[in-house]
């Protein structure tokens, strides 16, 4: 690698030196990055809408720290970082709108911090464009204000790689040392295994080059962030290996699966593609995904030409490593899984786009500017359309859950209460009830325990109209609400007709 030797960061100053023209450039650069982050926050509030309601996974995470409903079953693959992230709001307020606003502001600030961690490695205009490319993907806008861990792994990955390269360029950069440990901690706090995949190239590079101090700082962050997950693994699952094995079972068994096509299917706005079947979205929706590899390769070629290979090759390697398990080792797909890869790919792609539209394009510059501008405009239009459809469909689903919770209250199923059956977890949260399941990935009780609970509190079983009545619900009263059949236990429910 041509730029692997420690190099001074552009515009870095030592304590006691006088501010020069570079200070103004840094100020303008920070303002540019801050503008991108602020627009990202504003776009979330306008396009995703704070009143969208909570999704299935969100109700699980929020219920761990909130007071609106009892804590839902917390399965082995999950980590509690995102629950703690929202605790400052969720621990005292049940307002989904307030929670969305809090996360939108926080996600914008996190994007600014992650981009700023690359200052001195790329010009501010490259960082700003990279941030804009990442922030305008429908999946980024959709999940930025949600109580989900993937966006936070993405900004943690972006910051970790930038700080890693900065400490190699300037060992006296204290901010980069702290940032490296903190970003590693953030990733592991949110999803420990994702963090491992992201930093794998960094660890290999550090071992090969004997960069022991950066490796140690990164390890301190990863260990600190994953400590709670490890402790819980011993107290609830019999150790990390057992927890990983159980998590693998819940995810369908980790092994060789070609999930790249599944990821393509999810790009049309499917939040979870499991099982992943059906036709692929139109080429207008997926073309940007096909463009990622050649654009990344172009970014690498530009870096090699300009003799700054490392700072481009390292994020590309980390992006590939972060994406690998979700493209080849898991049997289903969700677009949010690849957010860390998209964040890391944005930098070399932005560098490539600014190069082909800059002075280096020569007499072809007017043509390349026109082509790139038209392509980006079309890309933004498609991303907006997918986001709009996804938000509308998701909001309708969450509204149905809320309406069903209202119907349960009207039928006498009020807190303290218990719901069982498919989709009982999110509906129980909306109703303020506990949830339980006797089979499947979220199994946490027995049929006998449900029967016993029905003697003490209102209990309802949810089922599809054509599904068999649960064997523990024999003799329970039947109600039909929309497309859901409710079996409500007699006695403690106190339900009216």
Description:
The structure is a single chain. This protein is mostly helical and 497 residues long. The chain is built from 18 helices and 5 strands. The protein has helices at residues 21-48, 56-63, 81-90, 96-116, 124-135, 138-143, 150-169, 174-190, 192-209, 212-237, 240-250, 260-266, 283-305, 310-328, 339-356, 365-410, 424-431, 447-454, and strands at residues 418-420, 434-436, 459-463, 477-481, 484-488. Strands 2-1-3-5-4 form a 5-stranded mixed β-sheet, with helices on both faces. Helix 2 (56-63) crosses helix 17 and helix 13 (283-305) packs across helix 15. The radius of gyration is 25 Å and the shape is globular. 44% of the residues are buried. Mean pLDDT is 91; it is low at 4-23 and 493-497.
Can you give keywords for this protein?
single chain, 497 residues, five-stranded mixed beta sheet, 18 helices
Write a concise synopsis of the structure shown.
With 497 residues, the protein is mainly α. It has 18 helices and five strands. Strands 2-1-3-5-4 form a five-stranded mixed sheet, sandwiched between helices.
């Amino acid at each position: 690698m041509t730029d692997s030797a420690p190099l001074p960061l552009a515009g870095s100053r030592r304590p006691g030196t006088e501010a020069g023209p570079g200070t103004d450039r840094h100020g303008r650069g920070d303002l540019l990055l801050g503008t991108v982050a602020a627009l990202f926050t504003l776009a979330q509030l306008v396009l995703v809408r704070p009143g969208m309601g909570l999704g299935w996974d969100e109700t699980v995470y929020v219920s761990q720290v909130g007071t609106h409903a009892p804590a839902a079953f917390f399965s082995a693959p999950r980590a509690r970082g995102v629950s703690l992230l929202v605790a400052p709001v969720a621990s005292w307020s049940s307002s989904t709108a307030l929670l969305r606003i809090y996360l939108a502001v926080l996600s914008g600030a996190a994007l600014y911090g992650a981009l700023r961690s690359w200052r001195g490695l790329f010009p501010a205009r490259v960082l700003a464009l990279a941030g804009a490319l990442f922030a305008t993907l429908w999946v980024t806008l959709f999940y930025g204000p949600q109580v989900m861990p993937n966006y936070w792994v993405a900004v943690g990955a972006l910051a970790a790689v930038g700080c890693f390269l900065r400490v190699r360029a300037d060992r006296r950069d204290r901010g980069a040392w702290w940032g490296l440990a903190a970003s590693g901690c953030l990733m592991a706090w949110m999803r420990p295994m994702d963090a491992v995949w992201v930093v794998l190239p960094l660890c290999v590079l550090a071992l090969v080059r004997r960069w022991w101090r950066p490796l140690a700082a990164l390890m301190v962050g990863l260990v600190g962030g994953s400590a709670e997950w490890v402790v819980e693994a011993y107290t609830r699952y019999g150790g990390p290996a057992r927890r990983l094995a159980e998590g693998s079972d819940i995810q369908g068994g980790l092994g060789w699966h070609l999930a790249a096509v599944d990821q393509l299917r999810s790009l049309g706005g499917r939040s979870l593609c499991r099982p992943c079947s059906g036709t692929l979205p139109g080429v207008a929706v997926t073309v940007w995904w096909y463009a990622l590899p050649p654009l990344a390769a172009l970014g690498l070629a530009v870096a090699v030409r300009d003799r700054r290979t490392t700072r481009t090759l390292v994020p590309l390697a980390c992006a590939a490593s972060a994406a690998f398990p979700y493209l080849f080792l898991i049997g289903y797909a969700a677009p949010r899984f690849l957010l860390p890869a998209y964040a890391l790919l944005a930098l070399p792609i932005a560098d490539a786009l600014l190069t082909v539209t800059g002075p280096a394009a020569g007499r072809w510059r007017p043509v390349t500017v026109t082509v790139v501008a038209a392509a980006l405009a079309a890309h933004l239009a498609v991303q907006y359309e997918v986001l709009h459809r996804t938000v509308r469909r998701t909001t309708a689903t969450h509204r149905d859950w809320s309406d069903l919770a209202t119907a349960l209250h009207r039928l006498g199923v009020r807190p303290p209460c218990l719901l069982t059956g498919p989709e009982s977890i999110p509906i129980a949260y909306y109703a303020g009830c506990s949830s339980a399941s006797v089979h499947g990935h979220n199994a946490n009780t027995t049929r006998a325990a449900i029967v016993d609970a029905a003697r003490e509190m209102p209990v309802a079983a949810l089922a599809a109209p054509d599904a068999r009545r649960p064997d523990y619900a024999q003799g329970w009263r039947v109600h039909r609400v929309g497309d859901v059949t409710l079996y409500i236990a007699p006695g403690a429910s106190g339900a009216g007709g």
